[in-house]
Amino acid sequence: MASYREAIALLGAGRLPEALAKVEESAVLDPNIWEVWQLIGNCRHQQGDVPGALEAWKKSTDLNPANEELKEFAGRVRLALHKHLHDMMDTTKMFEGMAEKVSAQASILDEATAHFDANRLQEAEDAARRAVRENQKNWQAWKLIGDCNLARGDRRSALQSYNRALEANPSAMEIKELVKRLVSGAFGGA
Predict the structure, then answer these.
(1) What are the two backbone dihedrals, phi and then psi, of residue 95, each rounded to the nearest 5 degrees?
(2) Which of 26, 52, 67, 156 is most deeply buried (CB count within 10 A of its CB)?
(3) Does residue 89 sit within a domain?
(4) pLDDT at 188
């Protein structure tokens, strides 16, 4: 029990890693002392090792089934861990859904760009508008719609599309330059 008492003193001095090492030493010397396992659980919990804490607390309650306070505390920790894992799963699902949407948007933009590069302006605009229907803030799709309009000579529609792109991405310097040139009359057309 000397290692156990040393662990308590180290814990009181805020020396958690050393306290855990000492109390684990006590458990090796006598694995049948429930207080030792409870302290191991407490130290592990303070270090953020929740699974390790729960394992140690289970050993403690197996050795002392009458310790209702520890059972209740371990239950609360288990519940908090379960909620945390559930929240993480929800977050993962959310990111997976976002990744799928981003991938679909990228695919549509690739299609639109390929059409534009092949001078199939209507197909390019149609594809870009599909992307915009999915996400009104898709500034790249708005820019491509503006590019299609500008290529057709429709400056007014191009300017409207470029302005929508800037609403979605105010820092897009290339689009700011296009708008500036359109407003100044640097491009010909309607």
Answers:
(1) -65, -35
(2) 26
(3) no
(4) 58
The CATH number of residue 125's host domain is: 1.25.40.10
Cα-only R_g, the chain: 32
The answer to whether residue 74 sits within a structural domain is: no
Give the residue, 148 or 107, on which the prediction is more confident: 148
pLDDT at 57: 87
Which secondary-structure segment (H or E) carries 37? helix 34-46
Q: How far apart are the C-alpha atoms of 107 and 125, rounded to whole Å?
A: 14
Please determine, for residue 187, whether its predicted confidence score (pLDDT) is greater than 80: no
Instruction: Give me the domain span that covers residue 162.
Output: 104-184
Q: Is a pLDDT exceeding 80 seen at residue 96? A: no
From the centroid of its chain, how far is CA 82? 18
Q: How many domains does the structure of the chain reveal?
A: 2
> Does this model's pTM top 0.70?
no
CA atoms within 13 A on the CB side of 21: 5
Q: What is the 3-state secondary structure (H, E, C) of 52-117?
A: HHHHHHHHHHHHCCCCHHHHHHHHHHHHHHHHHHHHHHHHHHHHHHHHHHHHHHHHHHHHHHHHHH
Mean pLDDT of 154-169: 95
d(CA 110, CA 142): 14
Assess if residue 147 is contained within a domain.
Answer: yes
